[in-house]
């Protein structure tokens, strides 16, 4: 019997228009894994998101009025699903964003409706941090109340050889853009 499997790509998400910047910021500032405020978290989030929105709107205008993270995550989703299918692995690849749509709660509801046998949570953050991977996994746990034995969590992959090789390949490709006599002077930032 083939298990009905879902691979969930966990990411932070980003505003998809200038009008969604304030609700995105509100979701970010009310995250208890980032801001640990015992009382008044929602009030804090409302005040800060309202205050920050005009400045953030100006920044987003310079990059097309929306975050590129949603488009990039969707491309990753499609490519991973295609790659799994080519390898004869029948899995639905879904997205759960921490601060913008599709929100984690929406993806959790989708998995409940589709009754998956196995759910693999794959944060798109290579290394573990409580405010990225930890927050995404905690948000999933807050909403997912079904059979926990169906869940497989991947906490990090920063030291996986294939990840390291992929990063090295991208660095080498980028260095090719520089004249050979300049390459040893290029500064690499992560």
What do you see in this structure?
The protein is α/β, with parallel strands linked by helices and 190 residues long. The chain has two domains: 1-156, 3-Layer(aba) Sandwich (Rossmann fold); 160-190. It is built from six helices and four strands; from the N terminus they run βαααβαβαβα. It has helices at 21-29, 41-61, 69-86, 104-114, 133-143, 161-175, and strands at 5-11, 91-97, 118-123, 151-153. Helix 5 links the parallel strand 3 and strand 4. It is globular.
Query: Which geometry do the CA atoms define?
Result: globular
Mean pLDDT: 96
What is the total number of structural domains? 2
Q: Structural class, from secondary structure content?
A: alpha/beta
Strand order of the largest sheet: 2-1-3-4
Number of helices: 6
CATH class group of the largest domain: Alpha Beta
In the CATH scheme, what's the topology name of the largest domain?
A: Rossmann fold
The CA-CA distance between the termini, in Å, is: 44 Å
Percentage of residues in DSSP E strands: 5-15%
- Please describe the biggest sheet, giving its number of strands, its sense, and whether it closes into a barrel: 4 strands, parallel
Q: In CATH terms, what is the architecture of the largest domain?
A: 3-Layer(aba) Sandwich
**Relative helix content:** 40-55%
Listing every helix as H and every strand as E from the N terminus to the C terminus, the arrangement reads EHHHEHEHEH
Low-confidence stretches: none
Give the beta-strand count. Answer: 4
GO molecular function: ferrochelatase activity
GO biological process, one term: heme biosynthetic process
Organism: hydrothermal vent metagenome
Pfam family, one: Ferrochelatase
């Amino acid at each position: 019997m083939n298990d009905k499997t879902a691979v969930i790509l966990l990411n932070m998400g980003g505003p998809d228009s200038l009008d969604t910047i304030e609700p995105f910021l509100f979701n970010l500032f009310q995250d208890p894994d980032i801001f640990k405020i015992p009382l008044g978290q929602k009030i804090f989030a409302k005040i800060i998101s309202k205050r920050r929105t005009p400045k953030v709107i100006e920044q987003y205008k310079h990059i097309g009025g929306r975050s590129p993270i949603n488009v990039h995550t969707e491309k990753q989703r499609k490519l991973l699903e295609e790659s799994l299918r080519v390898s004869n692995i029948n899995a639905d690849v879904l997205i759960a964003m921490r601060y913008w749509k599709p929100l984690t709660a929406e993806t959790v509801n989708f998995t409940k409706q589709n009754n998956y046998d196995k759910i693999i949570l794959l944060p798109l953050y290579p290394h573990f941090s409580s405010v990225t991977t930890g927050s995404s996994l905690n948000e999933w746990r807050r909403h997912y109340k079904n059979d926990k034995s169906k869940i497989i969590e991947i906490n990090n992959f920063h030291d996986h050889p294939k990840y390291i090789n992929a990063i090295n390949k991208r660095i080498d490709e980028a260095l090719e853009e520089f004249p050979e006599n300049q390459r040893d002077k290029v500064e690499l930032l992560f």
